[in-house]
Design goal:
three-stranded mixed beta sheet; 15-stranded mixed beta sheet; disordered N terminus; alpha/beta; Glucose Oxidase, domain 1; Aminopeptidase
């Protein structure tokens, strides 16, 4: 049973000394703005980097056990965030007058009895070792399933009529296991899969969904670091232990997984094929699915645990009698990867940067918005969501069950993994250019003396990998706010080196921990920038929309027509 939100108060009190010692007088009292009223500027000036530090320190503390979804530590984090909202005086916007929106889920843990073999028609089978050579989950939420099915190579596994691309070519893949590449066809043409920028078609989420829709019983992605934009360790760590799913609706895969590149090469060779040639063939519109001379023979055994996790949702009422029924939203996920019991040494995935930083910013924004004597015209929603690391599940549920109709939410501003590296001279706001709000954002960035940096790694598809995407899918104009690569006192190369080092050594690793040496100047700067954008969006006369022809424009029109 969930404890009352008030139970979390001792947790807050236990760390109150940190906040009290960290608090310092703002040096921005003399700020003025051509775009914001004095009351907003005064509120913005109270954003304190040391408040953000205190939240990050607590949320990434070992006591919270990595904030695993459906785990004790994740529930403590949710209670802490709800208590902060309560202490700020915000109104609860969750279920039944609480701060919590219950998200029904199922946890699936592959059991030791699971076997996973790639069996060629001739020769010995490849008996794969879990985590080392493959990861796979049974999405059907059944305790056991057997698979003995042909493997069909479907290239990138994409059907995209708007790009005249179809990897399936009408081939019946019902009952088959699909082998496919991560990412999408190579292109420099912005009108073809958006050139080097990854679209949703390149994401593993889409590929699994499409495979299930077409009746396949399994889908296996071939991992290649350059294509996935992260090493195998990230795949392994993100797919070890219990994995969470929203309660199943519609067709589901008996095996949704990844295999190492070397395993894929061996499978191709044993099937009389060459993986390099297969990958080359997949770059053509003329590609046709190929049935390999091999089968997947798997015995999928799972521990299935139904449970509920929570999004934490609060609202600040707007000042306009008519527009207060509409809102601007701020989001950040609070979950991380929890504890890995089978791991020796440090096995707590503390998630300091990913995403205690975003939560710290969200909580500081909630505080200064709530304390401002003046309020923007529209209401302001604050949502800290669960299960982002499980595939954006909490925000997906929030998007499908928003506290107010999606057509009345003007904008979602998301924070995810904001590096505490010092004062930024750039901001990355990937996807903002797709909205009608972009000219306002450009003017505000100029006022904040922030250069707008294009996506540093468009091939990684970051727009489709964070919680704002869930809101975009239901039509809400949405993007994340983050720092660029140029920091005061350092050149751009330094910033890029820091980003690369974090990705390679700390991202989704136990070493993503809080350090007293972290500099939260940049996190506070991104909070101030987001505050200004949010206040402005909440005060405009019209709702924000998508640029004409954008892939989310249709969903926006449908949501506005439905409220």
């Amino acid at each position: 049973m969930r404890k009352s939100v008030v139970v979390a108060v001792p947790l807050v009190a236990a760390f109150a000394f940190t906040i009290a010692q960290a608090a310092r007088k703002s040096t921005h009292d003399s700020l003025t703005s051509a775009h914001l009223p004095p009351a907003a500027v005064a509120a913005l000036a109270k954003i304190d980097p040391e408040h953000i530090r205190a939240h990050v320190r607590f949320l990434s503390y070992d006591l919270l056990e990595g904030r695993g979804t459906g785990q004790r530590g994740g529930d403590i984090a949710a209670e802490y965030i709800a208590t902060q909202f309560w202490m700020d005086g915000l109104k609860a916007a969750g279920d039944n007058g609480t701060f919590f929106q219950k998200v029904p889920m199922v946890g699936v843990t592959p059991a030791a009895e699971t076997t996973f073999e790639l069996a060629p028609n001739k020769g010995d089978a490849l008996k794969l070792k879990p985590l080392e050579q493959y990861v796979a989950y049974d999405q059907t939420e059944q305790p056991a399933n057997d698979i003995d099915a042909d493997i069909v190579y479907v290239g990138y596994g994409i059907e995209a009529p708007e790009y005249q691309w179809d990897d399936y070519k009408g081939v019946d893949v019902r009952g088959k296991v699909l082998l496919m590449l991560v990412n999408e066809p190579n292109s420099k043409d912005p009108n073809f899969f958006k050139g080097p920028a990854l679209t949703f078609y390149g994401r593993w989420v889409y590929k699994y969904l499409e495979a299930a829709r077409k009746g396949a019983i399994g889908a296996i992605l071939i991992h290649k670091s350059e294509m996935a934009s992260y090493p195998w360790e990230v795949v392994r760590n993100s797919n070890s232990g219990e994995k969470s799913f929203l309660k199943a609706e519609g067709p589901q895969l008996k095996a949704a997984g990844w295999i190492q590149l070397d395993v894929a090469k061996q499978l191709a060779q044993k099937s009389g094929m060459d993986l390099d040639k297969m990958m080359e063939d997949a770059e053509s519109r003329n590609f046709h699915p190929v049935t390999l001379a091999a089968k997947l023979k798997a015995h999928m055994v799972s521990k299935v645990r139904p449970f509920s996790s929570n999004n934490v949702v609060a609202v600040l009422q707007g000042s306009d009698p008519k527009l207060k029924d509409e809102a601007v939203m701020f989001t950040a996920h609070y979950d991380h990867l929890g504890i890995r019991p089978d791991m020796t040494g440090d096995n707590i995935y503390n998630g300091a940067r990913d995403n205690a930083t975003g939560c710290g910013i969200l909580l500081e924004l909630a505080r200064v918005f709530a304390q401002s004597p003046a309020k923007p015209r529209r209401s302001v929603l604050f949502a800290s969501v669960t299960a982002e690391e499980q595939g954006l599940l909490g925000s997906e549920y929030l998007g499908e069950h928003p506290p107010i109709p999606a057509g009345k939410i003007s904008l979602d501003l998301n924070y995810d993994d904001v590096p505490p590296l010092g004062a930024p001279e750039e901001t990355e706001v990937v996807g903002s250019e797709r909205t009608t709000f972009y000219p306002t954002l450009e003017a505000m960035a100029k006022e904040f003396r922030l250069a707008i940096r294009p996506d540093s790694h468009p091939e990684a598809g970051h727009y489709y990998r964070s919680d704002h995407f869930s809101m975009a899918r239901v039509g809400v104009p949405a993007f994340s706010i983050n720092e660029g690569m140029k920091y005061k006192g350092h050149n751009t190369e330094w910033g890029m080196q820091q980003a690369e080092e974090f990705t390679n050594k700390h991202y989704h690793q136990p070493s993503d921990e809080y350090s007293p040496n972290m500099d939260f100047t940049g996190d506070a700067a991104m909070a101030r920038f987001g505050f200004a954008l949010g206040w402005t969006a909440a005060s405009q006369s019209k709702l924000i929309g998508w640029q004409k022809g954008d892939e989310f424009e249709k969903a926006r029109m449908q949501s506005e027509g439905g409220h």
